[in-house]
Design a protein that fits this description.
single chain, about 70 residues, mainly alpha, about 85% helix, about 0% strand, flat
Length: about 70
């Protein structure tokens, strides 16, 4: 399995954990899981040289952190 595939699957599992933690109302661990998943998906975008993936995850990180700081 290629390194990018390993990072991609780890990021996906962490994102799913973030969704589960949100559903269970386990805060702030859900936010931490999302931040880690978003950063890993950004790394995947860099590895693939895919600007769309990078931009969407920068936007997601800004929205998530902004919302968390505003709450």
């Amino acid at each position: 399995m290629a390194r990018v595939d390993v990072v991609k699957w780890i990021a996906t599992v962490i994102q799913l954990i973030g969704y589960a933690l949100t559903g269970l109302n386990i805060v702030p661990w859900n936010v931490l899981a999302f931040v880690v998943g978003i950063i890993l998906w950004f790394v995947v975008g860099v590895m693939w040289k895919d600007r769309a993936i990078m931009v969407v995850h920068i936007g997601a990180l800004m929205a998530l952190v902004g919302g968390y700081l505003n709450s």
